[in-house]
Amino acid sequence: MGRRDSLLRSLVSDYLLVRQGCLALASEPAAARAELEQLLGDERLPGPLSQLVATFNLIWSPATQPEFADAARLLRLELLKLHASLSMELLGRAAAGRPELGELVARLDTLLLELVQGEAENPLLLRLFLEQPGLSVTLWDKDLAQLFAELFPHTPEAGYLIAAKSYFTAHRLKEALAAYEQALAINPAQEEARRKSYVISGMVRDAAAREGED
Fold first, then answer.
1. Quick check: 36 and 129 in contact, CB under 8 A?
2. What is the C-alpha separation between 170 and 188, in angstroms, rounded?
3. Which residues does the chain have with pLDDT short of 50?
4. What's the pLDDT at 196?
5. 154 touches 148 (CB < 8 A)
């Protein structure tokens, strides 16, 4: 399970690189060849687009389809179509029916959000959004509070609680404390966040005191 969580986190990071490359292609046609080469890579060093498709294939194998298989399949097909179109252009051939990159990126953004919604309780994904708070704005024009409210419509603080537990397990006390405090900012009555914030605050102070004695 841990490897799959890590792959999903990598998937979002890889997609951001692909997205940036595609938008650069759409806005600066003169730099198309260099951007294509960077996106596609080669056999020796695969580019982010190939890596993204490979990660999809690792997560969603034909033998184990998740509940959101339809969205995953659509997203994979869109990526493969884009990969084929860019490959044709790199070879200097006209790619018939190449999708308009801006529209395709918007479609991929929507499908990626569907996948993230299906993985709402993935702690590493939640940590990724906490560590890069501008990511949800870039991808979906939603700040972190809006994204978490959509992922957890009845308990929007739940995203912060899941991330906080993951940070605490990884012995990242300051990040755990910050996440619990964000949960409390949303729901001051959240008992787990209140209790854990108190305990972790003491642990952080004790660790700082020990460092001062060394």
1. no
2. 25
3. 65, 68
4. 96
5. no
Cα-based distances in Å from 214 to 141, 174, 175, 206, 210: 46, 20, 23, 13, 7
For residue 210, the model assigns a pLDDT of: 81
Can you give the three-state secondary structure of the chain, one letter per residue?
A: CHHHHHHHHHHHHHHHHHHHHHHHHHHCHHHHHHHHHHHHECCCCECHHHHHHHHHHHHCCCCCCCCCHHHHHHHHHHHHHHHHHHHHHHCCCCCCCCCCHHHHHHHHHHHHHHHHHHCCCCHHHHHHHHHCCCHHHHHHCCCHHHHHHHHCCCCCCHHHHHHHHHHHHCCCHHHHHHHHHHHHHHCCCCHHHHHHHHHHHHHHHHHHHHHHHC
* Spacing of C-alpha 162 from chain mean position: 16
Position 10 scores a pLDDT of 87
Q: How far is residue 195 CA from its own chain's centroid? A: 29
pLDDT of residue 13: 87
Q: CA angle, corner 138, sides to 137 and 144, nearest 5?
A: 25
Judge whether 163 and 179 are in contact, CB under 8 Å: yes
Positive or negative: CA dihedral 212, 175, 9, 18: negative
